[in-house]
Model the fold of this input.
Amino acid sequence: MIPYGRQDITQADIDAVVEVLKSDFLTQGPMVPRFEQSVAEHVGAGHALAVNSATSALHIACLALGLGPGDWLWTSPVTFVASANCGLYCGAQVDFVDIDPSTYNLCPKALAAKLEVAEREGRLPKVVVPVHLCGQPCDMQAIHELALRYGFKVIEDASHAIGGKYRGEFIGNCRYSDITVFSFHPVKIVTTAEGGMALTNDDQLASQMALLRSHGITRDPSLMTHESDGPWYYQQIELGLNYRMTELQAALGVSQMTRLNSYVERRHVLARRYNEKLAHLPLVTPWQHPDSYSGLHLYVVRLELDKVSVSHRQVFESLREQGIGVNLHYIPVHTQPYYARMGFEAGDFPQAESYYRDAISLPMFQSMTLEQQDKVVEAVERALMP
Ligand SMILES: *Cc1c(COP(=O)(O)O)cnc(C)c1O
Done:
C-alpha cells in the first residue's frame, strides 16, 4: 500500500535519538529548548513552546487567551476535530464558518457576514481558529482586519503548514495572529512521533503557555507570591497540565528541521507533477493562491462526479483495492455525532458538505518516489474510467 502520508527517518535522526537515550536527560533537558529555538528561528517567531501534541498546543493556546465558559470559538468545519475540541476543553462553545470553495479554507467573506450577525446578537467569538488546510495559508490579512474590528483573538492551526509561506514570510511568524500551532505527528511534514508547538510574539502569552504545559508550576522567583523558601522551592500559580515534550522527541525534531526546506521543495515537485499528469482527468487539482507557498501536507483532488459514471465511494474503494492508501480530509466536524448533539445539522455549512462529497487526498510525502507517483496516477485513471 502506498500511504497518503509517511515520515522520513534518516540515520542522522536515529543517531540523534540514541544520543539522547545515552545522556542524562530523557525529559526536561537541553534538547526541547534547542528544538524550540530551531523552529522559532526558522519561521521568525519570538517564542516557541514545544508540547506533546498539536492538540495540547491548541488547548494551552485557548487557555492562555482566556477562553472559558460563556465564550465562543469559531473554526472551519473542514478540519481535524482537534481544532474545534480545544474550545470545548475550556468550557467554551464552538461554532463554524463555511469554507471558500476554491481554497477549502475558512472563507473570510463568510466570516465577515457571520460576525455582523453575531455582533447584533451579542455573541461575538473570543477566539477564531483559521486552519491552513493542506498547507495552503488562509487569507490571514483579511482575518486579521476582522480581528481588530471585532476584538477576537486568532490562533492559526498550522498543523499542515510548517515550511509554507504567506505573502513571502514563513507561516508561524504570527504577523497576523496571536498564536500559531504546528503538529509533528508522523503524517505531517516534520515529525517528533507525537508532538506539537505553539508560537507567539507575545511575552505574556509565552510565559502563560510555559506554565500551563507543566502543571502551572514555576521556579522563576519573579513570578512567585513571596520569596523562595530555599533551593528546592517552586510554586504552583495556575492549574496547568503535563503536556511536556520529551528530549527524545525534541532531538528527532531538531534533526528533522535541518531537512524542512528540502521536504517542502520535494512536495512541490510532486504536486507540479500530479497537476500535469492528472490534468486530462475529470477532477479538480488544488488551486494555489498566488500570495501563498503551501507547505503541501496534503494533495486533495475533487472529483467531477457529473462527468463520470462512478461514485465518490467507488473511486475511493477502487484506489484502496489498487494499493493506494487514499484518505479523506476531513469529515466536516459539525456532522460528527458529538457535534450533532449540540444542534448542528446537515446543510448548516453547504460548501464544507459539498467538499466532503467529492474530495480525495492522494498520497503526498517527501520520500514518495516518482515511480510510486506514476502508479497513483494510473490507479486514478483506472478508478475514474473503469
Ligand atoms: C493533525 C492535526 C491536529 C492535531 O495534531 P496532533 O499533533 O495529532 O494533536 C490538529 N489540527 C489539524 C488541522 C491537524 O491536521
